[in-house]
Amino acid sequence: KQRYKGRPHDVKLFDELADFTETQFDFICIWARTTTDGQRCRVVAASNPPTTAEGMWIVERWGPWLDKKHPNPAEDGELRWFVRAPGKKEIAVDGPGEYGPYMVKDEEKMIAARSRTFIRSRLEDNPDLMRDPSYGNLLDNLGPELRDAYREGNFEFGMRDTPHQLIPSAWIREAQERWGERPPKDVPMCTIACDPACGGDDDTTVAFRHDAWFGRIASKPGKQTPLGADVAALILGIRRDAAEVVIDMGGGYGNATAEHLKSNNVSTFSYNGAKKSRARTSDRTLAFANIRAQAHWEFREALDPSQPGGSAVALPPDRAMIAELTAPNFTITRQGILIEKKESVKDRLGRSPDRGDAIVMCWFRGPHAVGIAMQFEKGGDGEQGLLRRRPKVILGRLARRKHRRK
Questions:
Q1: Cα separation of 183 and 188, whole Å?
Q2: pLDDT at 159 (0 to 100)
Q3: What 3-state DSSP class applies to 303?
């Protein structure tokens, strides 16, 4: 993408957009510009549906056309208008014009909306390829998901897991189907986790959970949280029920935040994924190369639908989170299970997997229901309640003492 830096064009044309990262696309589009009066500038992108989690940003950006659950769906070719306010995600607006004011550095500014549309294309729409039946026959012989993606342009079923993917995509989608807008009744917040970016290029990201129910992830650009006190203020604004706070200490960004929280008598755990782990998988067959591998694998085990009673983990709707949780691969080494380095995941995604890491850290610490005895169901208003049996608490030490007395 650096080769396109400073090279203006009045049209930027992308092919196979799903093979670009979102940051590559945004960076190159900066120079879709002209100094010629009256010259129109535009960006046109063509792509097959994404077949890996890294390309799912396309579905999020063109959500009104591609996401079947979008609250305001759009027809093919319909223009929609968007504004990206500083430090925020894109906001859909009513039409062309300027919106705001928004704070840009220390100044309030109006921001002009930009239009976007999507036009779906199928094999039958290409007269050149339709003249030769061999390509159509080739697509007909693909598996059902790839056939729907490449022949029908179906963006819902195109994503395919890689052979060594740590967490299957289907498990994440099932966890999102179990989610409701409100936490379960009578279950306090037990853990809140933060991946800080004190002034860095990444986002400061906070995840929290009430047992197996995770709330919506909070995120702020690192430049808006330059100090440990700023990150601590974000955490304390979300924290409830004296929940333990988990701080990622990788890269040194978490030190100031942890010290600030501890000075205010907040229960804090310093998470260092590089440390050695002494734990093993639930079946006791494999060790872990480090704490990071242990934390990710334990969350994988919690999501596994084949465990007795199934999984109770409920995750919020968040496409960026899906990509980040499903991006890491794993290998088996002499030291045990090893998770792909964060830097490698970051290179493929085009961003740091902060949301996925915050979710994993949040599960790593704090109490859990034993087994999957606690089950959640959605009520008619979207609220969740404890509608089945309560968790069975295993008091191992007390049980042994009773046995000795007998």
A1: 9
A2: 58
A3: helix
R_g (Cα) of the chain, nearest Å: 24
* Strand ranges for 181-325 from DSSP E: 191-195, 203-210, 213-214, 218-221, 244-248, 268-271
For residue 160, what pLDDT is reported? 66
Strands 114-116 and 107-112: unpaired
50: left (phi over 0), alpha (psi -120 to 50) or beta: beta
The count of C-alpha atoms lying within 13 angstroms of the C-alpha of 155, restricted to the half-sphere facing its C-beta, is 24
Identify which of 172, 198, 197 has the alpha carbon closest to the alpha carbon of residue 356. 172
Following DSSP, what letter does each residue of 316-383 receive, concatenated? Answer: ---HHHHHHHHS-BEEEETTEEEEPPHHHHHHHHTS--HHHHHHHHHHHSS---STT---EEE-TTS-
**Contacts (Cβ under 8 Å, ≥6 apart) of 38:** none
Kindly indicate the confidence band of residue 393, based on its pLDDT and cuts at 50, 70 and 90.
Answer: very low
Distance CA 321, CA 195 (A): 14
Fill in the DSSP letter of residue 307: S
In the block, residue with structure tokens 């047992």: 211
What does residue 247 show for φ and ψ, rounded to 5 degrees?
Answer: -115, 130
Q: Which position has the higher pLDDT, 126 or 145?
A: 126
Q: For residue 373, what are its two tokens?
A: 């005895």
Q: The tokens of 80 are what?
A: 């929609």
Crossing angle for the helix pair 144-152 and 133-140, to the nearest 10 degrees:
150
Note the pLDDT tens digit of each residue in 329-387. 999 999 999 999 998 888 877 788 999 999 999 999 988 864 333 433 333 334 444 33
The amino acid sitting at 318 is: D
Contact 300, 359 (CB under 8 A): no
Model pLDDT for residues 6-37, shown as the tens digit of each residue: 899 999 999 999 889 888 999 999 999 999 99
Nearest to 109 by CA among 119, 98, 118: 98
